[in-house]
Amino acid sequence: MTKPHEELLQEFRGYATTAPNVQSVMERIAKRLHETMPRYNWAGFYLIDPTDSNFLIVGPFAGSFTPNKRIQLTFGLCGLAATSKRVVVVQDVSKDPRYLAGSSMVKSEIVVPIFVGKKLAAELDIESYFSDTFTKPEQEFVEACGAVIANYLGKA
Fold first, then answer.
1. How do residues 102-111 score in pLDDT, each as one tens digit?
2. Fewer beta carbons within 10 Å, N or C terminal of the chain?
3. What Å distances lie between residue 150 and 13, 45, 96, 107, 112, CA to CA?
4. Please, are residues 44 and 52 in contact by the beta-carbon 8 Å criterion?
5. What is the mean pLDDT of residues 63-76?
6. Where would I find the H helices in the chain?
7. Domain residues for 77?
8. Domain count along the chain
9. CA–CA distance, 10 with 73 (Å, rounded to integer)
10. Which pLDDT score, from 0 to 100, does residue 1 have?
């Protein structure tokens, strides 16, 4: 990971030790990723819908477009990450028929599922207007950001 990655992770981990709730941690992470990472044009969280666990609902986010508000677990890259329980990285969304467009400007996307124990609690979704944004170091960084939320929820 790069120095900016390490500095942001340190900030997020520090904030998580004093944050009043997980919502505020997610808000901080989404806002700071969008502000400081030039190729992260949308950063946000999707949460398991408390009224129907077959859906994800949008949580805190920051970005230049309005996201899909509710996603069925069988649709899109967010659904794929949820059902496969794996990180999904697509370097060119135009070549992946599973991509559920939030904006026609998006070129690449990463979705990191966040678990508490073995149960899916949320996902960190980042979309970029640039192809090939999510290299291995970027993926490791985004996974580490997701781990901040998993750790917070695990202690709550």
1. 889 999 999 9
2. C
3. 11, 12, 28, 27, 11
4. no
5. 88
6. 3-18, 22-36, 76-84, 136-155
7. 3-155
8. 1
9. 32
10. 76
Distance CA 49, CA 56 (A): 5
Please tell me the distance from the alpha carbon of residue 100 to that of residue 115, in angstroms, as a whole number: 22
Asked if 98 contacts 85 with a C-beta cutoff of 8 angstroms, the reply is no
Length of the chain: 156
Tell me the pLDDT of the chain averaged across its residues: 94
Contacts of 7 (CB under 8 A, 6+ apart): none
Torsion angle (degrees, nearest 10) of CA 133, 4, 120, 152: -170
Q: Which has the closest alpha carbon to 75: 52, 101, 44?
A: 101
pTM attached to this predicted model: 0.95
pLDDT in tens, 38-65: 999 999 999 999 999 999 999 999 998 8
